[in-house]
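New to this. Please check this fold:
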Amino acid sequence: MAEAAAPDLLDLLRLAGALAAVVGLVWLFGRLAQRGGVATPGTGSLAVRERIAVSRGVQLLVVAVNGRTLLVGVTGQQVNLVADLSHPGASVPQDAPQPAPATPAPAAPGFAQRLAAALRGRSA
């Protein structure tokens, strides 16, 4: 009876090894895709060009969207436009009609105060 159990145990070990190999490959490809090794960059009109953590939960992002470059402040609760870094008319001929500039929402005073405090804390 011991001889009949040995091939079953061997088959079970082979199955477990194959399953572990498949799970390992899935994990590896997932990590490579996160790092940009496998995934191709998107061709959409929105891209985060740069990101800097100012303090815990507060980031500054340089975002390119529809030909404009924006500096955006991001917290856990809100997203605020800090500055429009675009050069008006740089890629548009001078005789082309210019779109009306969008009026950005004013930055919340809470974000500005937290940003200033975080920057003072980094330089000290």
User: Anything to note?
Assistant: Confidence is low (pLDDT under 50) at residues 89-94. The first strand starts at residue 46 and ends at 55. The chain has two domains: 1-40, 46-87+102-123. The chain is about 40% helix and 25% strand.
